[in-house]
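Suppose you are handed a protein chain with no further information: no name, no annotation, nothing but its sequence. What can you learn? This example shows the usual starting point.
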Amino acid sequence: MRGLFNSRSKHDYLSDALTLLTGWTREGEQIRRTLVMDDTQHAALTERVKVVADALRLRPEISRRDEETQIRVGHGDGEPLTEGEVLLAARIEDAYRAVTAS
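A reasonable first move is to predict its three-dimensional structure. Written in structure tokens, the prediction is:
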């Protein structure tokens, strides 16, 4: 079930939350992030993201190129971002810090 942001106050809340996600850029109704990490860190991050995404019933796009992991969250089909998608992006940031700290 997706909770959409239809009212002005909810839109402002979403915009405020997105400003706190350093490194994430908005592309229409999706947000994306490129992370520099090695293959082992990528694998660890992917596993952590899968657990959170499954719990939120979301499917981020995660791809690997050279030494970069690219993540895209949101549907991109005209549906607005949800609180869950912004929460997933925040949890991805937490996982990124955890796998690159060691």
